[in-house]
Amino acid sequence: MAINQHQIDNLINKVDIVDVVSKYIDVQKKGRNYLSICPFHDDSDPSMHISPDKKIFKCFVCGTGGNVITFVQEFNNVTFFKALSIISKDYNLKIDGLNEGREAPKHTTAESRVLEINKAAADFFNGLIISNHAKLARAYLNERFIKKGEISKFNIGYAASEVELYEYLIKKGFEKKDIVNSGLIYSKGISNKCFFENRIVFPILDDEGNTIGFSGRAFKEGDEPKYKNSMENIVFKKSQLAYNFSNAKKEIRVKNEILILEGFMDVISLERVGIFNSVAIMGTSFTDFHVKLFSKVTKNFKLFLDGDKAGVKASLKTAMFLMDRKINVTVISNKTGKDPDELVIAGETNLINQMIKESLHPIDFAFEYYQGQYNIKDSNQLSDFVNNMVEIISHETNLIVRESSISKLSNLTGINEETILNYFTKLKNNPVISEPTPIIEREISNVYDEQGFVNNEMIEDHWMAGPDEEQGGFFMESLNDFDQVVKENHQAVSPSNNNKSISKNNLDILFARAKAKKNFSEAGIILDLLKSNENLELIEKNSVRFENTNLKLIAKFIIEKYKSNNYNGDDFQQIANELSNFNKKLEEVIYYMKNILFLEETGIKTKKAIEDAFDKIEVYKIAMEVIEYKEKIDSTNDYELQKTYLERIEWLLEKIKQIESKWRE
User: Fold this and answer.
1) Which sign does the torsion angle of CA 117, 113, 245, 29 carry?
2) Do 354 and 334 touch, CB atoms closer than 8 A?
3) Would you give the DSSP letter of residue 653?
4) 247 Cα distance to chain centroid
5) First to last CA, the chain
6) Residue 649 has what pLDDT?
7) Bigger pLDDT: 661 or 161?
8) What is the spatial order of strands in the sheet that 258-261 belongs to?
């Protein structure tokens, strides 16, 4: 059954967009509208406007805009239908057909049963924490300054030996085989004992808030081991632990950075002092699973592991792993020898905030740390120092940073740069740090990725645009940014410059704008075709210019309907229904397109406007080429090659100007 567009329109009209946005970020009233820091780019001054009357939002810096569905979709990095599902559930609005096979179930039946058992067990443990059985456990938590509010938020519990978890779960209607699969019990004689007996229990959740397992903390003298985690099972994978991520996602997105900690006690303590964007990997190695999960909300990772030698070693290993994957990673220099939990208990909140603010690039951190570990006047220690420094420098993908670091190492040690480079080259021939992608991760099917609308696709909406922007002024503004990038490149691409890195800010912003305009144009073309066949011949002729493959298929589908006299135009619901039967993925894409142009006054009506829309798609493709050539400039230290790439960028920018000049005719 296809979704009815009228129900979507009804949801947009009924739901207060300010109320929804306020659940994710702080907003402030200004006149009839509201302002907020934009969560979709690195923003310091409020640049996102929210209009409760028009039921829309727009950032005037990065171009992201749309209605309430767009905001939830972009903020959570989910599909259009998933965003629709989130809002309809939160506001108890019915959307017929929404959950009918449009997204494959994330969990198998067996996995779902274990998750249900885990949730029931978590509530069972949490209920026992306030019982007489847990007096000593509560006393221990009090000693660790963990109060009622934190016990409630993190659902902390206690596994009392006097009360049988197994019997409780059986009475709740769960079957023994499923309870066994959960790993929560083990057999001892004729009894079924709880795996976490006499321990304080901390539930571990996945990114959607499902309880996937537990960690039991011993608190009595002589009890070992100190921590006891769930055994690996069909839902609990030690390589995929990210404690508190489901709670922290909102703050991570708003701050545009994630603090990566060692243990859950560190997370709980940092929350106590107002730091809400932290996640604990619980002593496991950082994997590609974590990179993929965290990158959905930020590309800025800060490592705040323990300050002892083992913690520093883990920080550097993780940093190199992330550098290989081009993640913007910094390391928090913790010289206290204490972990974050201990620092909070010691009342060092100001120091913690200062350390977070002053986090270092991994190479700078390594320079600082290893200089304190080695006496470089001693030949043997000098060799170890250089070995360690060259290893971490070898993982830096930005050649400007890499070369400046080699120069710094040469100046510090007195070793010739050529000697360091020779050693560096030998080391680079070895494989980089890598983690195998877990099989389960490779099998996850993400329709959103296939649609091509991932990673904050920017939706340009003309609801606040002035007349100049309608006539192409938007791209003139973008070209000013392009020109600024070219100037920066000219400054950076010079034989004498070893330290200046090329700024990405202007390029990132203009690319976001170009992407927004491209999305708006593609949506306008499709909806023009839906309305009538007046421009059919022109659209068919240019259909190969669509950047998105799915839109090419949709355009072809509609054109064939016209040609076979099975569609008379101006009936969005007919095409949506037929696409629902033909291809669920394409159905979602067309609803997504409709949502971009949800205000009726926007759209494309003339042949000239259609031609301009296809040209704007071309501008986006050219912008992608500019990005590629800029990355090539960053990845080589060959001055002549850099000049060649820069000339190519300038030629591409000239192409954009030529295209834009047609819009003013």
Assistant:
1) negative
2) no
3) H
4) 14
5) 46
6) 86
7) 161
8) 278-280, 258-261, 300-303, 328-331
CATH number for the domain formed by residue range(s) 109-236: 3.90.980.10
Report the alpha-carbon distance of residue 156 to residue 160 in Å, rounded: 13
**Residue 108 has which token pair?**
């198998």
Dist CA 493 CA 139 (whole Å): 63
Report the distance separating Cα 331 and Cα 369, nearest Å: 11
Query: Collapsing DSSP states into helix, strand and coil, what is residue 234?
Result: coil
DSSP character for 231? P
CA atoms within a 13 Å half-sphere pointing along the CA-CB vector of 496: 1
CA dihedral of residues 447, 448, 453, 458 (deg, nearest 10): 160
Residues paired with residue 204 on neighbouring β-strands, in sequence order: 213
Half-sphere exposure of 220 (CA within 13 A, CB side): 9
- pTM summary value: 0.67
Query: Comparing 100 with 11, which gets the higher pLDDT?
Result: 11
Q: Which two tokens stand for residue 311?
A: 């913690």
Chain position carrying tokens 């834009």: 660
- The residue type at 659: I
Residues 6+ apart with CB under 8 A from 2: 97, 573, 576, 577, 579, 580, 581, 587
pLDDT in tens, 199-246: 999 999 999 899 999 999 999 988 899 999 999 999 999 999 999 999
71-95 residue pLDDT tens: 999 888 888 888 999 999 899 998 8
SS3 for 251? helix
Residue with tokens 């669920």: 584
Maximum pairwise Cα distance, the chain: 88
Beta-strand (E) ranges in 128-190? 157-158, 185-188
For 383-406, how does the pLDDT look when each residue is reduced to its tens digit (9 = 90+)? 999 999 999 999 998 888 988 999
Single-letter amino acid code for the residue at 485:
V
Give me the half-sphere count of Cα atoms (radius 13 Å) on the Cβ side of residue 589: 26
Q: Quick one: which of 280, 264, 370 has its CA closest to 316?
A: 370
The architecture (CATH level 2) of 251-444 comes to 3-Layer(aba) Sandwich (3.40)
Matching CATH topology for 5-90 and 251-444? no
The full DSSP string for 283-336 is TPPP-HHHHHHHHTT-SEEEE---SSHHHHHHHHHHHHHHHHTT-EEEE---TT
Joined together, the tokens standing for residue 550 give: 């799915």
Tell me whether strands 211-217 and 227-229 are parallel, antiparallel or unpaired.
Answer: antiparallel
**Predicted local distance difference test score (pLDDT) of residue 159:** 96
Which residue in the block uniquely carries the two structure tokens 């922290």?
A: 248
Contacts of 125 (CB under 8 A, 6+ apart): 157, 158, 159, 196, 201, 203, 214
Architecture label for domain 5-90: Alpha-Beta Complex (3.90)
Identity at 311, one-letter amino acid code? G
Of all helices (H) and strands (E), which one includes residue 331?
strand 328-331
Going from the C-alpha of 194 to that of each of 19, 83, 232, 462, 528, the distances in angstroms are 43, 39, 16, 60, 63
The type of residue at 592 is Y
Other Cβ atoms less than 10 A from the Cβ of 19: the count is 13
Task: Residue 348: name the closest of 358, 361, 357, 339 by CA.
Answer: 339
Encoded amino acid at 100, one letter: E
Q: CB neighbours of 244 closer than 8 A, spacing ≥ 6?
A: 154, 205, 264, 267, 278, 279, 280
For residue 202, list its beta bridge partners: 215
Domain ranges of the chain: 5-90, 109-236, 251-444, 462-663
Query: What is the full DSSP assignment across 434-446?
Result: --PPPHHHHH---
Q: CB-based contacts of 205: which residues, under 8 Å, 6+ apart?
A: 211, 212, 243, 244, 245, 246, 247
